[in-house]
Amino acid sequence: MSSYQNLSVTSISELIQGCINGERHSQSRLYEALSPRMFVVCLRYARNREEAEEVLQEGFMRVFEHIRQYKFTGSFEGWVRKIMVNCALSKYRSKSQLHAVANIDVNNVNVDYADREDILSKISVKELIGMVQQLPPAYRMVFNLYVFEGMKHREIAAHLNISEGTSKSNLSDARAILQKNIASSLLSVKQNVNEL
Amino acid sequence: MSEDLHDIDKLFQESIEGHAEAPPPLVWEQLDKKLDQKKVASIAGRYNKLKWVAAALFLISLSMAAMWVYHLRRDERNSGLVRKDRSSQHANGLPRLQTEQAPLQNSSTSSDDRGNEVREQAGVNDSLQRNERVIPPSSQGKEENPPIKGESTDVAGQKTANNQQLKKEEQLIGRKESFEPAGRNLSVETGSGRQTAAANREKNKKVTGRGAKEEAIQPSLIVKDGKQDRNNNLSTAVQEEAPLRNAFIAEPGALADHTDVDASRLPLLAYRSLMPDLAAAPTPVRLTPVPAFTATVFFSPNLVSTRIADNRIMNFTGGPPNRAEDKKEIKDKEQTRSSKSFGVQLDYHINPHWSVGSGLVISSRITDIKAKPIYGHFDSRGGEINYQFYCSSGYSSIKLKTPGTNPPYAADTAQAVSSSNKLKYLSVPLIVKYSFGQGKFQFITGAGLQANFLTVSTIETQITKGTVQNYANMNEIQGLRSMYFSGILTAGVSYRLNRILSASVMPTAQLGFTSINQNQNAPVKSYINFYGLALGIGVKL
């Protein structure tokens, strides 16, 4: 599986052109190159792996359908990533009425902060992604859009059809939950080490 | 606290951002399948334009083929007439001019030499200007033409035989004949007296029923009892019989010196030389030519019946579900407001009874849809949730544009108060017709096939959501085929107004062979049947 970073600009352009021409081989190669990174993006927005796979599939479908619209200006990976995020948001909107209202007590979060390297040495990236996935959908969306996509609350509010205040509140709650989860995770790791 | 929270953001951002994880192979397999489906749809869409080009090429080809057949038939008819006349001439024992000249050439004095002398005297250029000689009418009871002054008695017997032969021909010719080569006036004495070319033209019009237009177009054609020969036949005959024609135009005084030639017969001989086929037509033949093409412009108000069937094909593309109640709901809620067709059809007449027609027809249908609820659905194309309006044509996503209106959520409900669905098609029919006549009336029956290309599809609706009313006009209906086929049955009557125009009334049925819907994206399959009364004006070309 070839990584997207290993591909030259010329190769990427050729792959894109092949996809525009509907060549399956080019589509396959582009998918191979981009899907690992895009899958992580989808995992962050999805509730579980199955949902992330659905979003990834739908996202690449849109990429291949609309690849003619790519103007060869700017990062192609960024363009694809934006499509993945939009797909994830669409999925979220389509199920928004089914989302249970989060009722989480975030006031009693008492975290003993550790060093970042210390945390990363004890908690895997998969676990971090799992923590994001376990966030309530609204929190997850806001957290992802703010932290990973770099959106402002105003933009998030427009995308999710919520107010800016709600966006800020959701982000704050999401951070608190994640801090709590990290603390819990670190604590369990510490206990395991002590038991050993 | 804020700084710590910021650290959380950074922690997640930096740790996850650079991470990559391969998705399971199943994702690509499913994507591959979806791409295959889309490719089929994409190719179909790409070939939509080609379908139009193909239809246009088909029409052009059909027209060219019909023109070619028409010209071929006309040429065959003309050449066939010449052959027929010539064979009839031989069958009637009337030899061609070359054989008729033999007795004259065999007379004691060489008429050929004398003809040359005459030619020298008269000249060729002014030959036809002097052809105002009056041929003594053969119908005045004389058995023989009077001998020319100074005619020798030894050739009289021969001439008598010739005269008898010529007299028969004069009687035949005496019916009605003249010709006017290159604008010159050649008159021939007939049984009813001297006729000019103009007079004969008038007579021919009466006999043949052909109009002045045809005469004007082909002024130099030889007229033979309503038939016409080509100009080149005429010129050939004129060249072949030049010596005799020169004799014919000779001065009376000069001819008097040629005792072996009956000068009074020369014009007739010359005429016969120019009209070799004349004697072969003993009776006038009235031709009623079948026009090769008829163009008909028509308008037809239609009644519409729609047969609605279940669409049992699975829906893979995230379109509307195939609900069982859709069929009943659509049947109950929809009613055709109006439908009409108009267009032009070109018929090629293979023979007086059979013809093949094609053309272009524009048909439209407006269907009123009674009030019904509409629901919010996820639209896979736009990635949004919109209200989706279902009807027999397919479905359309409705975006509410009124400010302050919240976008719908999945399964959200609104009321479509009054709606209408408009479809327009450009159709290319191919019809085989059989007709038979009674006086000015032609009774016509026909059957054929019609390809209908979708040109316009719209849904207009008024949506009520709470106290807010929205008007929506959607120009895109999902689930409609770009083309469908229908069969045509027609039977009617045409009335001939004059030689060119005719009016027709043709009850016509168009039966949908294929549904107007695609297998995917449409809640039902609709087969449209039209029953129309086509009122047309036909022009013979």
Describe the structure.
The complex is a heterodimer of chains A (196) and B (541). The model of chain A has no long low-confidence stretch (mean pLDDT 83). Chain A has 196 residues and is mostly helical. The longest helix of chain A has 32 residues, at 164-195. Helices cover 71% and strands 0% of the residues of chain A. In chain A, helix 2 crosses helix 6 and helix 7 (137-148) crosses helix 9 (164-195). Among the domains of chain B are: 92-280, no CATH class; 290-370 and 420-458 and 478-540, Porin, CATH 2.40.160. The N and C termini of chain B lie far apart (93 Å). Chain B has helices spanning 2-17, 25-91, 97-105, 111-122, 156-173, 197-208, 212-217, 231-240, 242-248, 252-256, 266-274, 324-333; strands spanning 188-190, 193-195, 222-224, 227-229, 293-310, 334-349, 354-369, 372-379, 384-391, 394-398, 413-438, 441-465, 468-474, 483-496, 501-512, 524-540. Chain B is built from twelve helices and 16 strands. Chains A and B meet through helix 2, helix 3, helix 4, helix 5 and helix 6 of A and helix 1 and helix 2 of B.
Query: What structural class do the secondary elements of chain A suggest?
Result: mainly alpha
Greatest interface and its participating residue counts:
A-B, 52 and 40 residues
List segments of chain A where confidence is low: pLDDT < 50 over at least 5 consecutive residues: none
Oligomer category: heterodimer
Query: Helicity range of the residues of chain B?
Result: 25-40%
What is the overall shape of chain A? Answer: globular
Q: Write down the overall mean pLDDT of chain A.
A: 83
Residue share in β-strands of chain B: 25-35%
Helix content of chain A: over 70%
Question: Features of this protein?
Answer:
heterodimer; A: 196 residues; mainly alpha; Rna Polymerase Sigma Factor, Chain: A; Arc Repressor Mutant, subunit A; 9 helices; globular; B: 541 residues; alpha+beta; Porin; eight-stranded antiparallel beta barrel; two-stranded antiparallel ribbon; 16 strands; 34% strand; elongated
